[in-house]
Amino acid sequence: MARFRTWAGIALAGALTVSAAGCSSTGGKRAEDARAAAAAQGRAAVNTPRWTFAMITHSGDGDSFWDIVQSGAEQAAVKDNVDFLYSHDDEAQQQAQLVDAAVDKKVDGIIVTLAKPDALKAALARARKAGIPVVTVNSGSAESQRFGALTHVGQDESVAGEAVGDELNERGRKKVLCVLHEQGNVGHEQRCAGVRKTFDGDVQSLYVNGTNMPDVQSAIEAKLQSDASVDAVVTLGAPYADTAAKAKQDAGSSAEIDTFDLNAKVAAGLKPGRLGFAVDQQPYLQGYEAVDLLWLYRYNSDVLGGGRPVLTGPQIVTKDDAAALEEYTKRGTR
User: Fold this and answer.
1) Is-contact 292 261, C-beta < 8 A?
2) Of 37, 75, 331, 334, which alpha carbon lies 20 to 30 A from 66's?
3) What is residue 65's DSSP assignment?
4) By C-alpha distance, which of 285, 326, 324, 334 is closest to 27?
C-alpha cells in the first residue's frame, strides 16, 4: 500500500500515531489480526468487571460514517468485556437528553460528540457530578477539556481544513466551493475556515440541506453553472462526494471534486480519478480508541493525550492509496 501523506499537525498524537499506522498496514498485520479475531471468537480478552459504556453521537439516520465509528467501538467493547450502548440524534437537545438518560442509567463511562457543544454542557456537568468519566470523540476538541472530559479522540477540524488548503495549493486550484451540509455544526465551520487560512485562492461557502440529497445536488449544480471559475468542490462528508460528482457532470463543469471522510464509494471514486483526494480521519479508530481509553481509565486510571486531543487524522489519501483502502472500506473499517 502506498504510504499516506500525513500532514505535519499529526505530530501532536505521537503515541497514537503508531497505533493508527498499524491499522493502515497490510500483509502480515492483516493476517495477524485475522488470527487474533479467530482465536478470540467474540470473547473478552480481559477479566475486568463487566462495565457499561454509552456512546451518544450527533449522527442522523443512515449515516455510514457513524456505522464505522460504532463498529470500532463495538469490537473494542468485546475485547474489553464491556456492555456497549449506542444512541444518536442529530438534534442537539435530543442528544443532550440521551446523555441525561445514560447518566440516569448510571453507566460506567460515556463517549459523546460535541458538534453543538453548548447544548451538551449541562448534561456533561451532570455526568461529571455523578462521577461518570467522559471521553469526547470526533467533534468538540476545543471544548472537551473545559467540559470535564478525560480526553478527546478525533481530528482537529481546523488542522484538517488547513491540510486541505495546502493540498489544493499543490494542485494549482484557484477557486474552491466548500459545501456545508449541516448548519450550526462547529466542526464544519472550522473545516472551511481552515481551508481559507492556508489556501492561496478564493474560498466560497455553500450551505445545503444535507438531509435531502436531490437538493444538495441541484444546489451544487446551480453554483457550478453560474460560476465557471470554480475549479474545486470540497464536500465535508463522504456521502456528499458522489452527489457533488453527479452535479459536476450535469453542470458540464471541469471542477475537481474533493472530500472530507472516506467510504467505499469515495475509495472507488479515487481509483479512476473521479475524485481528487479525500481527508481520512479514521472513524473506526475513533470508536475503538474511545472505548479503550475509558476501559484503561476504569482499570488503571490511565489517560492519554496529556491535555491535548488524541488525533486520528487528517490523512490526505489519493488514487495511489485507493486499491488498498477499497479493501478496508468494503469490510466497513475505513
Assistant:
1) no
2) 37
3) H
4) 324
Let me know: does 288 contact 73? Beta carbons within 8 Å.
Answer: yes
Beta strands in the chain (DSSP E): 5-6, 52-57, 83-88, 109-112, 134-138, 151-155, 175-180, 202-207, 232-235, 256-260, 278-280, 310-313, 315-317
255 touches 230 (CB < 8 A): yes
- Residue whose C-alpha cell reads 477479566 in the numeric block: 47
Residue with cell 466548500: 178
What's the grid cell of residue 147? Answer: 467540559
pLDDT above 70: percentage of residues in the chain: 88
Nearest to 201 by CA among 161, 166, 236: 166
270-301 confidence digits (pLDDT tens): 999 999 999 999 999 999 999 999 999 999 99
Return the C-alpha cell found at 318: 489519493
pLDDT of residue 127: 98
Instruction: Concatenate the DSSP letters of all residues of 126-177 into one string.
Output: HHHHTT--EEEEES-HHHHTTTT-SEEEEE-HHHHHHHHHHHHHHTT--EEE
- Per-residue cell: 37: 479475531
